[in-house]
Amino acid sequence: MGRIGIYGGTFNPPHTGHMLALREFAEKLQLDRVLLIPDRVPPHKEMPAGSPDAAVRLELCRLAAKEYPFVTVSDLELRREGRSYTVDTVRELEALYPDEERIFLMGTDMFLSFDKWYMPDQIVRHVSLGMANRQAPSEEEKNAILAQKEKLEREMGATVYIVENDLIEISSSAVRLLLRYGAGEEVLPKAVNDEILRLGLYRTGADLRSLPMEKLREESLSLHKPRRVPHVEGCCELAVHLAERWGADPVAAARAALLHDVTKILSGTEQLILCRRYGILLDDFDRQNESLLHAKTGAAVAKHIFGESEEVCEAIRRHTTGKAGMTKLQKILYLADMIEKTRSYPGVEALRQLAEEDLDAAVRSALQRTIAFVQEGGRALHPDSVQAYAYECEQAAEQGSAGK
Ligand SMILES: [Fe+2]
Ligand SMILES: [Fe+2]
Questions:
Q1: Which residue pairs, CB below 8 angstroms and at least 24 apart, start in 45-49?
Q2: Is the peptide bond before 137 cis (omega within 30 degrees of 0)?
Q3: pLDDT above 70 covers what percent of the chain?
Q4: CA of 40 to the centre of ligand 2 (A)
Q5: 189 CA to middle of ligand 1, Å?
Q6: What residue ranges of the chain are covered by domains with CATH 1.10.3210.10?
Q7: Distance from Cα 208 to the centre of ligand 1, integer Å
Q8: Cα of 318 to ligand 2 centre, how many Å?
Q9: pLDDT score at 44
């Protein structure tokens, strides 16, 4: 008896993460082949902007499978009329492949919620279940998986295989964002990436360079998590105000503020993908502090995707750490990020007041506060912040003695 894997999903788009997961399943469960089955998306389910229709997703899956000979794409779900349930699919697959062990493949989240699916006890009569662990699962998750396996076997007579997964997961939403940020080839089979670019899917055809301010605002806000939007808006408002107050360019300040966190939504792994794409060199500090990488990747995206000026990009690059000898614009973005109106921590009011009275004193105070905060938290301090603070103190001392 042969073994066949069944892998369903929206595949919007099918990416390298899917294909490597399938390879892992195929090797560890000794599958002869895998059927990749794009789901029909119910009409009421919202798809992200620029998503292709089912026929195009099917074609993209076929292109992805070309590089993986053990994968066959099936249009079984797409052909079915009316409401579509997994139980119908697995019944159909039993009729098509009666002599093979059929293993329905899934990730941890789907597995842990399997008993809430429609007719799970019927599904397991037609297929075995194969689940891939997340990389390095917590003890709690491991226990939940074992408990679920035992429950499904005992209560429904299911056959369950658990696969230890060494792969780093990447989400389809991150893949779509990386596509828009010009890094599709890093996360997609080549033929899939080429076709997406050829058709301009997922808004890859949109030219975002040198957008007028309102368009830039709209684009930028759509690229952040909703809960981060007030921070970006607050940062923009304050940066413009401080630029006007201290004689910097308010337009550059607004543009830098709108884009300063434009890659913040990406995980550390996804940040590293963008670093590779844009040839951003990383030191040990960067590799150990992935949360700060969004300043460097944000600057690269501002430059290559949004076509922003070097002064805007450099302000973005420096907004988390500062540096020795910051320009006025860089100081303004550094401060605005830290004290815009949604920020709330002891001392923020005093910093806001100081920013109105003396920009340099406010920057010194902000740097000092950051240094103390990082040290108290026992975290590593970026050398650029230390140098920035030393530089600003020296400047102040020089100005002080010159004024005497
Ligand atoms: Fe940031
Ligand atoms: Fe920020």
A1: 47/12, 48/12, 48/173, 48/176, 48/202, 49/203
A2: no
A3: 98
A4: 38
A5: 31
A6: 207-403
A7: 21
A8: 11
A9: 60
CATH of 207-403, one of 2.60.40.10, 1.10.3710.10, 1.10.3210.10, 3.20.20.150: 1.10.3210.10
Q: Is the pLDDT of residue 51 over 90?
A: no
In the chain, the amino acid numbered 241 is: H
Q: Where in the chain is the domain with CATH 3.40.50.620?
A: 3-172
Centroid of chain to Cα 352: 32
Residue type, 189: P
- For ligand 1, the distance from its centroid to the CA atom of residue 134, given in whole angstroms, is 28
CB 57 within 8 A of CB 11: yes
Evaluate whether 219 touches 208 at the Cβ level (below 8 Å).
Answer: yes
Tally of helices (H runs) and strands (E runs) in the chain: 21, 6
Q: What is the Å distance from ligand 2's center to 46 Cα?
A: 29
What confidence tens digit (pLDDT) does each residue in 312-322 have? 999 999 999 99
At 131 the pLDDT is 95
The span from the CA of 61 to the CA of 355, in Å, is: 54
User: What kind of fold does domain 3-172 have according to CATH?
Assistant: Rossmann fold (3.40.50)
Q: How far is the CA of 319 from the centre of ligand 2 (A)?
A: 8
pTM of whole model > 0.85?
A: yes
Dist. CA 333 → ligand 1 center (Å): 10
From ligand 1's centre to the CA of 298, what distance in Å? 9
Ligand 2 centroid–CA 313 distance in Å is 14
Cα 397 to middle of ligand 2, angstroms: 30
Q: Is the pLDDT of residue 291 over 90?
A: no
State the residue for tokens 């630029």. Answer: 243
